[in-house]
Specification:
The protein has one helix and four strands, in the order ββαββ. A two-stranded antiparallel ribbon has the order 1-2.
Length: 95
């Protein structure tokens, strides 16, 4: 049987929230890096990739207003400032 992915969630976009905690919590591990050439790397274990998939599914399927965003540090935890990874919803055609 082929692997499947399902993420049912309550749309909390009207409250400016996701239904899940956006921080990567064990066993999920995610980190972001920028190499010497300026390339952006998102590195994760399988649980981390599934966590990112859930976050992205909610951002893509819920009714967030353009400009809704949140920030994570390089280990995908609550950001206390730069450097950080920012996620933002923008439905413009030129994104």
């Amino acid at each position: 049987m082929a692997p499947t992915f399902t993420h049912a969630f309550e749309d909390l976009s009207a409250d400016g929230m996701l239904s899940i905690e956006t921080d990567a919590e064990a066993p999920a591990k995610i980190r972001g890096e920028i190499d010497k050439d300026g390339n952006i790397w998102i590195i994760a274990n399988p649980d981390g990739w599934l966590h990112l998939a859930k976050v992205c599914a909610e951002l893509g399927l819920a009714n967030y207003e353009d400009g809704y965003h949140f920030h994570k540090d390089r280990l995908f935890a609550h950001s206390n400032g730069a450097p950080e990874i920012s996620f933002m919803v923008d439905s413009a055609d030129d994104v």
